[in-house]
Amino acid sequence: MPEVNAVAFVVLAALTLGGAVMMMLTPNVVHAAFWLLEVLVATAGLYLVLSAEFIALVQIMVYAGAVSVLVLFVIMLTLRRREDAERPRNLSLPVAAMAAIFAAVVAVTTRAMRLPAAAAPAKAPAVAEFGHELFTRWTLPFEIASGVLLVALVGAVWWAGRGEDL
Amino acid sequence: MKVGLDAFILLATALFSVGLFGALSKRSAIMVLMALELMANAVNILLVAASRYVTPATMDGWFFAVFSLVVSAAEIGLGLSLVLALYRKVRTAELDRLETLKG
Amino acid sequence: MGVLLAAIPLLPAAAFALLGPMSRELRNRAKWVSIVAMSASLALAVVAFVQAWLAPAHGEGARVVFHAFAPIAPGGAFGFGLLLDPVSAVMLIVVTVVGLAVQVYSLGYMHSDERVGWYYAVLSLFSAAMLAVVLADNFLMLYMAWEVMGLCSYLLIGFWHTEEGPRKASIKAFLVTRVGDIGFALGLAAMFALTRSFAFDKVLPAATAWAPGAATLVALLLLFGAMGKSAQFPLHVWLPDAMAGPTPASALIHAATMVAAGVYLVARALPIFVASGVALSVTLLIGIVTALLGGSLALVQYDIKKVLAYSTISQLGYMFVALGTASEVAGLYHLVTHAFFKSLLFLGAGVIIHSTHTQDMREMGGLRKKMPVTTGVFTIGALALAGVFPLSGFFSKDEILASLLRGHHYAFFGFALLAALLTAFYVTRLWVRVFWGTGSDHAHEGHRVMLAPMVVLAAITLVIGFASVAFAGFLGHEVEWPEVGLAAASTFTALAGIGAGWWVYAMGKVDTAEVRERLRLLYLVLQQKYYMDRLYEAAFVKPFEKVAGAFAWFDLGVIDGAVNGAAALWVRATQLSWRFDVSVIDGGVNRLADAVVDAGERLRRLQSGSVQSYQRLVLGAVVLLLAWVMVLWPALKAVLKGA
Question: Using 50, 70 and 90 to split pLDDT, how confident is the model at A78?
Fold first, then answer.
């Protein structure tokens, strides 16, 4: 759709932010992981609202699919007893304040910038075009990104594979 | 009512702030990594939204967002394996126990 | 001539100047320098005497052979001068002969003393001073040299200053003579006020024109000074104590020369005395009292040197009696003879003491067998003292008696004879106790170097008596040989005294212990020296000590207290300053250092080792920066623009 649906946006935004806040507030690590999953999915919804279907799909596959699972795996591996999942919440007021100020500053600044308010006038490009551009104009970054993934893979395997001695 | 770019910016900012808060205040290393993911996500949202509103035809921001996503994924994979390795060594994933740099 | 005369006192002075600064070791070995100087002075004195003898006479009175005067300030009355006339010529011979004899004798007597070099140095200085007294042409110079003699007397009496006796005696001598010297100084002032000069050739002629009152004042003041130095009553108390010094020094100073200086002074100033008249009577009176006092006290002494000391006092009294009759000749003649035989007696006493190791006559006796030479010369001296013909003492005493008669002082003549009787008696007593009888088997004769000077002095004593007329003529006066009647009277007196002494002491016909018991009171008075020492002690010494104590209290309490108080304050101040330094200065530095350390400790907490805390700091900084740049500054600008 050329226009961003206000209702959809509000709902999705609420889901995203709300999920993020809940993730911070819950004392249970496992619950937090699930909240993260929720946030990642809601974000994918936002991408859809923005007509970025491909990115939404990638979001689901990579983030919601792999990353969340990975996080849960590691949580399990570092948990000795079930009770250990419950942790003190560690909410630091000074940090919250700083984060709030930061947000406020950015908000104020962007306000002054007077960005285009209306919905995107043009139609968003299709996935085919996205793909075409990806492998032509953005080939180099693509290859490098592959390299990055390879390196990360090798590194992760090596680190995780080590025994008691680091 | 139309939703403008500034709404997305506000959202992204708020999300980023929440993630920032978590990264700096949580004791568990895994929690910190998750908060970092939030921040990365916020950035991606901003990128996608900005590209859609400002340069919809060239999709610059969308490509950026994709690569950002890739890097974030690599990062968290590596980060988690580090957490594992650390856990094996010192039997904890609590950040406030790691004080060797203290001085 | 002037150089020759000046050399006479200057040579011994040079000897002192040489010996004085030397180390003890060197000085002891260089003592012969003193003897050489003295010998040279003697030679020159003989030359001067011959010159004086041969110089033609002009007119009555003493003739001046040589006179030179060098004022300190041009045209002033203050200066140094030399006068050679018969009187000074004779005195030169006396001083140099006795001086040399004593120095030679001392080679033996002081041989083993470890400070013998200094002894000779002071002897030289003394000789120089006495010769200066004798050669002075003005009263002021005489006074200055007189004072130097006083110093030497102090140094020699107190030679063995490590012992208390000599120490106290030297101070006593100095103080008592100082009392006299004050009188002398006042006399000089009066003299100067009257004539604006001190010179003999100005003052003495002028004196005849002074009012009797003025002349009396000056004369009495000068007499007072002479009384101090010549140990006349009541300033005689120092002389017996002065026997604490070395015997040869006593021989020189307290028998022959220094004590004679007072006589010399009065002799020189006689015109003033004559102008006064009263002064002459006073002199006479004091002289006779002293003669009797000395003689009586000599009777009860057991210390051989004390006997001789009191004898000296008595004989000096005789000299003053002579001067009191305005007879310069009689006084000076007795001075000369006395110088020779008294120094002889002292030197003899020294040999005896050396040999018997005691000064107490009761421990002596029978020395004539073991010490023949000493006995011989001592006897000559003793007979001279007693006034027996043909020794010198007879002639000089006779001259005094004659002068008394000439002046019609019959009462004094009687007293003088009494004094002569006493003299003969105590001399005999001494002689018998020392030489007669038995005892002292381990006594030995003196060394040659000590005997030789004594022999010389004895020889002089034998012959000089016959020079009385020549002496008088030399001095410009007419004198005759002693008149037979007078000579008989004095000889009789002397023999009576000797006989009585012999009878009591040699033959033991009187139990002296019983006499002492019978005349207990008298004996006590005599033993206590007429209580004079006690009197002086109570009247002068004790009050003075009290005053001195008060001053000492003031000095210690107030002065020292103030000084110490100031010092204590200063110490306090420095303490406070130190404390300030430590607490404030150091404190400041230390506190600064502590603050730095403290700040470091606190800042260290930043290095928590927690990554998240680092991140928080970074976030904080970024937020701050961002807020400022993005929001606050633009807002501030807008506000300022609007305002």
Answer: confident
Least CA distance to C628: which residue of chain A? A105
What SS3 state is found at C254? helix
Degrees, nearest 5: CA angle C20-C21-C26: 90
pLDDT digits (tens, 9 = 90+) for C601-633: 888 877 777 788 888 889 999 999 988 888 788
What ipTM goes with this model? 0.91
Phi, psi of B28 (to 5 degrees): -80, 135
Q: Which residues contact A8 (CB under 8 A, 6 or more apart)?
A: A45, A49
Contact A152 B77 (CB under 8 A): yes
How much is the CA Rg of chain A, to the nearest whole Å?
A: 20
The CA-based dihedral angle spanning residues C401, C404, C409, C415, taken in that order and rounded to the nearest 10 degrees: -30
Q: Nearest Cβ partner of C612 from B24, B100, B102?
A: B24
Using the Cβ of C583 and the Cβ atoms of chain B, whether some distance falls under 8 Å is answered with no
Question: With an 8 Å Cβ cutoff, is A100 touching chain B?
Answer: yes
Q: How far apart are CA C26 and CA C613, in angstroms?
A: 95
- Are B25 and C612 within 8 A, CB to CB? yes
Encoding tokens for residue C484?
């037979």
CB–CB contact C609 B100 (8 Å): yes
Dihedral class, residue B98 (left if φ above 0, else alpha if ψ from -120 to 50, else beta): beta
Yes or no, beta carbons of B96 and C619 under 8 Å apart? no
B20 and chain C: CB distance < 8 Å anywhere? Answer: yes
Q: Phi and psi (nearest 5°) for C84?
A: -110, 110
Cβ neighbours around C483 below 10 Å, total: 13
pLDDT digits (tens, 9 = 90+) for C78-91: 778 888 888 888 99
